[in-house]
Design a protein that fits this description.
Blueprint lengths: L11 H11 L6 H13 L2 H17 L1 E2 L6 E2 L13 E8 L2 H10 L4 E5 L17 H7 L7 E4 L5 H14 L5 E4 L15 H9 L2 E2 L10
Parallel strand pairs: 3-4, 3-5, 5-6
Antiparallel strand pairs: 1-2, 6-7
Length: 214
Amino acid sequence: MPSYDIATSAAPPVARLIEAFHRLPGIGPKSAQRLTYHLIRMPKEEAEEFAAAILGVKERVVLCETCANIAESPECNICGDLQRDGTRICVVEEPLDVLAVERARVFSGRYHVLHGVISPVNGIGPNDLKLRELLERLRDGTVTEVIVATNPNLEGEATAMYIQQLIGPLGVKVTRLARGLPSGSDIEYADDSTLAHALESRTEIPQRRTDPAK
């Protein structure tokens, strides 16, 4: 049954579609209804093309074996581009963040997608992220800088510090995006100029010294 009262005013197929849209992030009841009735008015050919696009994503999209970005083959377009700078890796939380950084048009290196951040409250630890794969990419010494572009919130900062502690001993420079990004915001929603400034003004993350006796 739908989670809100539309059953009395909509045919069952319409109610199911509204409910399906409503389950998408950021889509409220009214937006779900507008999208549904837009599809109803859409020509059958366009509706079939829309449905085929959704199925195509589910059937053909995979994760890049190198950077874990969204791809259609084992290697994404960025990893397969020999013109990219292989000495720098920009670490982001989600695939959408790759698109955001690319829009800034100031970064020519490669990426690594964590698919989340460390969040004990949500039961997400380091082992749940693509950190082991990141370490493997640093083994051959090609990479000289890792730019940590996690979101400037509590979880993003904690993840950035963990990454610094993890790969700092390898001798790889670890930098963080500058504070041009508002605290608590998401990389995905940053405007191009702000993100470009943050990339160009990135700072190195200081390595914390721990007492081996503790």
